[in-house]
């Protein structure tokens, strides 16, 4: 599946699941009716990837929540792109706000991680987004563009890249960006890609929204045609 295909990308990121909760997720997805133009990717914690791979319908693809910046080696606790592919992952989430603001990964490092993952044929969900104080200071676009530039400086092809806008202030807080706020960032990101990469990349690259998306608010967000793609995060 190329990044330009389909109309909806759902990524379920279960960060602190258990075997039972993962089994429930698998059962729900296996029993779901998925339209042909809907792409679904599930991102379980590393330790549950094999459980998901062995039980989940092939209609749903598997993502890792992180990957190391280069080829495997003496990097205790890290997972390489090669290992992820070996266990059946097709995607990886990079630049998630928790990796940026808790682990301390900077823009340049994240860009390099994306470049290496792509070189190993992993598709990348590239996360961008601002903290509350940055939004309140009117710096939403500036921060998002800085993060985008770091990806652009490191990668040469956007064919297998999906951009995830995840405002940090709306992750796990119960808050959610309004449809207008999500739409404004979506338009700004498209414009940035058009001006700094190419009109073709801007047109083909999917942009998803991730910020406390759930069954109650996704319908309202989806009313905005350009914001019909979601990165939702599961139970903690």
UniProtKB/TrEMBL annotation:
Alphabetical list of InterPro entries matching this protein: Aldolase_TIM (IPR013785), TIM_sf (IPR035990), Triosephosphate_isomerase (IPR000652), Triosephosphate_isomerase_AS (IPR020861)
Task: Please give the GO cellular component terms listed in this UniProt entry.
Answer: cytosol
Among Pfam families, the record links this protein to: TIM
From the UniProt record, give the pathway where this protein acts. Answer: Carbohydrate biosynthesis
The record's annotation in Gene3D superfamilies points to: Aldolase class I
Keywords assigned: Isomerase
Which GO biological process entries does UniProt record here? gluconeogenesis; glyceraldehyde-3-phosphate biosynthetic process; glycerol catabolic process; glycolytic process
Q: Which domain of life is it from?
A: Eukaryota
Q: Does the keyword DNA-binding apply?
A: no
One MF annotation (Gene Ontology) recorded for this entry: triose-phosphate isomerase activity
Question: What protein family is recorded?
Answer: Belongs to the triosephosphate isomerase family.
- Subunit structure, as described in the record: Homodimer.
Q: What is this protein called?
A: Triosephosphate isomerase, chloroplastic
């Amino acid at each position: 599946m190329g990044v330009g295909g389909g109309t909806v990308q759902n990524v379920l990121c279960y960060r602190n699941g258990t075997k039972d909760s993962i089994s429930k997720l698998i059962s729900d997805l296996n029993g779901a009716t998925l339209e042909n133009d809907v792409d679904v990717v599930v991102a379980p914690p590393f330790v549950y990837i094999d459980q998901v791979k062995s039980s989940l319908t092939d209609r749903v693809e598997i993502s890792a929540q992180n990957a190391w910046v280069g080829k495997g080696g003496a990097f205790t606790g890290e997972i390489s792109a090669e290992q992820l592919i070996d266990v059946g992952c097709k995607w990886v989430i990079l630049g998630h706000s928790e990796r940026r603001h808790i682990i301390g990964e900077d823009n340049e490092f994240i860009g390099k991680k994306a470049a290496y993952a792509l070189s190993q044929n992993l598709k990348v969900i590239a996360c961008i987004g601002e903290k509350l104080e940055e939004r309140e200071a009117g710096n939403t676009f500036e921060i998002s563009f800085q993060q985008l530039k770091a990806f652009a400086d490191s990668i040469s092809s956007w064919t297998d890249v999906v951009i995830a806008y995840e405002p940090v202030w709306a992750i796990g807080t119960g808050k959610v960006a309004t449809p207008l706020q999500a739409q404004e960032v979506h338009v700004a990101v498209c414009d940035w890609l058009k001006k700094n990469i190419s009109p073709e990349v801007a047109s083909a690259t999917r942009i998803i929204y991730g910020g406390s998306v759930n069954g109650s608010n996704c319908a309202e967000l989806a009313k905005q045609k350009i914001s019909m793609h979601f990165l939702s995060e599961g139970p903690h």
